[in-house]
Amino acid sequence: MKALVYLGPGRRSWQEMPDPQIQHPGDAIVRVDAVTICGTDLHILKGDVPEVTANRILGHEAVGTVTEVGAGVETLAAGDRVLVSCVSACGRCRYCREAHYGQCLGGGGWILGHLIDGTQAEYVRVPFADNSTHRVPEGVSDEQMLMLADILPTSYEVGVLNGAVRPGDVVAIVGAGPIGLAAILTARLHSPRTIVAIDLADSRLDAARTFGADVVVNPGTQSARQVIDQLTSGLGADCVMEAVGTPGTFEDSVRLVRAGGHVANIGVHGAPATLHLEEIWIKNLTITTGLVDTYSTPTLVGLVAGQRLDTTAMVTHRFTFDEFEAAYDVFSRSAETGALKVLLTVSQ
Ligand SMILES: [Zn+2]
Ligand SMILES: [Zn+2]
C-alpha cells in the first residue's frame, strides 16, 4: 500500500509501505476512505514530537471501511463504515473506566501516527477497535464525519465543556485557526450570548464570522480587553478559550476572563508561560488544560446526524491520495492558502 511516511525532521514521503496486519485479537484493519492532516502532524514534521520515530506513518483522523477484524472484535465486521478516532481506548484501565481515554494506561490514548502507524495510508491497523471507532450513521458523509475524529471533540471537550460555557455567557476564543473555529461551532451548542473571536489574521477573523462569531477583534489594531469590557460592563468574559499555544496568548487569555470565570486552554504549548498568581489569586478563576478524551464523540455524531451541527465549512481544500505531498504543502502554508482542514480521498 501507499502511505505518508515521516522520515525524520523536515522529511516526509508518500511511498510504498507493507500492508498492516492484525497483530492482536482486538485489532481491525480499516481501508481509509477519507483522511485529513492535523496541525500536530506539522509539529511532528518539524521534529517537535521526539516520540515519533523515523519511518512512522502519520495521521490520527480517518473515515474508512473495515476490511478485517481480529478474533476478539465483537461489534464490527468487514464492510462497516467507521470513524477512526484520534484517541484509542483499551477500555479496561483506570482512566478508560472513568472515560478519560486520552490518558489510557493500557496501550491506548493518542497512539495512531504517534507511537504506532497512523491513518494517512490506504489501510490502517486500529487497536482496541471496538472502543476506538464510531460507526458512521446513514446519511452522514465521510467528510462531515471526518471532522469528528479530532478537532470537534477536542474543541468541545477541552474548550467548551472544560470552560463550562452556559447559556447567556460571553465567550472569548483566542485564536481562530481550525481548533478555534471548531470551538465557535461547538460553543454555539450552549447558546452563549456573545462569541468574541480574537486573532491577528483578518482572513481568520472573516472565517470566524462565518462560523458564528458575533464580534471579531484583531489585537494588532484593537484592544481585546476594551472590547470585552464594553460587552460585559467591565467584568470580563465568562469563559476564555486559548486556542493558539503560545505564552503570550495564554497570559492574554487569563487577563480577559472575569472573576469567577473559566480559562480553558486548548493550545499545544512548547514553551513555559507565566501564571500571574499575584494578580489572579483573588479572582476565583478556574483554569483547565487537557488532551481530548473523545467521550463526547457519540454526542457530536448524533448532532451531525440530526443536522444540529454542520462541519462542512471546515474543509477548504480537497485532494486525492496521490496528491498527498501537495496537500501537506497547502496545509502547511495556511496563512497564504487559507487552508482550514484539507480532505484527502481515495484516488479515482
Ligand atoms: Zn490532531
Ligand atoms: Zn485504557
TrEMBL record:
What molecular function does GO assign, one term?
zinc ion binding
Its keywords, alphabetically, are: Metal-binding, Oxidoreductase, Zinc
InterPro entries in the cross-refs:
ADH-like_C, ADH-like_N, ADH_Zn_CS, ER, GroES-like_sf, NAD(P)-bd_dom_sf
Q: Where is the Enoyl reductase (ER) domain?
A: 10-344
Q: Name one Pfam family in it.
A: ADH_N
Name the SMART domains on file: PKS_ER
Highest taxon in the source lineage: Bacteria
Is this entry keyworded Glycoprotein? no
Co-factor(s): Zn(2+)
The entry sums up its family as follows: Belongs to the zinc-containing alcohol dehydrogenase family.
Q: What is this protein called?
A: Alcohol dehydrogenase
Organism source for this protein? Mycolicibacterium diernhoferi
